[in-house]
Amino acid sequence: MQACRLCVLLIFLVFVRGAASVAAEGAAASAARPKLWRAVHVEIWGTTDGRSLERAIEAALVPMGINVIILEVNYRFEFESHPELRSKWVLRKEQARKLAALCRKHKIRLIPLFNCLGHQGHRQASSPLLAKYPDFEETPSIPKTDRDFYCPSWCPLHPKVNGIVFALIDELIETFQADAFHVGMDEVFVMASEKCPRCKGKDPAKLFAKAVNDYHQHLVKEKKVEMLMWGDRLLDAKETGYHKWEASANGTAPAIDMIPKDIIICDWHYRKRKSYPSIPLFQKKGFRVLPASFNRVDGALALLEYARKHDTGGVLGHLCTTWCPASWVAQALVKEEGKKPNPRGVAAARVLRACMEKLREDRPGPRVKTKE
């Protein structure tokens, strides 16, 4: 009997110690994550961009208070699982690890981005994935020269596409040692195409939600990382008053009620408006939201202030997108002798400075209760 009691006591102590360890790890991970996201999105086009970004981090982004970098990589990476899918110019793994280490040193959360589903090329050229595996495309029969055609998507029901894409995503997570991942998914105009034998006649919202849920299962449930995505396809253009680029006019909006609420929604709007109804909407639906601006200072500050005033507990901070190579932004932030900054980089840097200065005030706006 004495021996049995001793065994029970030992098991109990092991359990308590393990629970305490897990709690401590969770607390440490939580503490490492920014309370107020002061974020910037940049595109990486190769090792040169990696070196430029390193300089910008130490010379400009750290002093500015940036604590999150969303790094859009896509196919511009030294993939080993599928080397056939590398772009012409790639970021080497060694450079990626160095960049990630620099971010950790400065307590910057680096989040890789790989465009999923949509943005698989443009009118004149397909992405490496669709170029190598053309049967993955949702609309292979539509000519890329068609003026009404924006860019191709891969088919969310193709049985082989996720296996290849997940291998690419896993490499990025491992190399950058990332605890979060951005899956893109903006401006997906081609869903449930009549030209696709698998998707023809199906509900666009259910197809879009199926893709989101597939990525969530792999990232959150299996890889144990947070998932981010752009929010435009979850918004109804007619109901919100947004145009068809920043909200859906092709039936995908109902997917907002079909996906997990622990996904962080990057809600992008670039023009100055009196209101941004998606900010309270996403919060009411149970999502955390990261408002995202672009190259207009007035629009960026209007979005930032509106989000502050309508924060019911789910607004994380602010994200400045740049939509240009990291080297362009870096040259605008860190003036290099003999080099003339690209105008797009200059515009992005101007907005970034304005938004980070506004956030530096660190004065939360009044919280507004939304009507049930």
Briefly characterize the structure.
This protein has 372 residues and is α/β, with parallel strands linked by helices. Helices cover 41% and strands 12% of the residues. It has helices at residues 2-32, 47-64, 93-105, 128-132, 161-176, 204-222, 237-240, 278-284, 297-309, 326-333, 343-360; strands at 37-43, 68-72, 109-113, 180-182, 226-230, 264-268, 288-293, 317-325.
Structure explained in plain terms:
- With 372 residues, this protein is of the alpha/beta class.
- The chain has one domain (38-360): TIM Barrel (Alpha-Beta Barrel), CATH 3.20.20.
- Helix content is 41%, strand content 12%.
- It has helices spanning 2-32, 47-64, 93-105, 128-132, 161-176, 204-222, 237-240, 278-284, 297-309, 326-333, 343-360; strands spanning 37-43, 68-72, 109-113, 180-182, 226-230, 264-268, 288-293, 317-325.
- The chain has an eight-stranded parallel sheet with strand order 3-2-1-8-7-6-5-4.
- α3 (93-105) links the parallel β2 and β3.
- α2 (47-64) runs parallel beside α3 and α2 (47-64) packs across α10 (326-333).
- It is globular and about 55 Å long.
- The model is unreliable at 6-16, 18-32 and 364-372 (pLDDT under 50).
Q: What distinguishing features does this structure have?
A:
41% helix, globular, 372 residues
CATH topology value = TIM Barrel
Q: Round the Cα radius of gyration to an integer and report it.
A: 22 Å
Order of helices and strands: HEHEHEHHEHEHEHEHEHH
The CATH architecture designation is Alpha-Beta Barrel
Mean pLDDT: 87
Identify low-pLDDT runs. Answer: 6-16, 18-32, 364-372
How are the strands ordered across the major sheet?
3-2-1-8-7-6-5-4
Main beta sheet strand tally, sense and closure: 8 strands, parallel
What's the CATH C level? Alpha Beta
Q: Which descriptor suits the 3D outline? A: globular
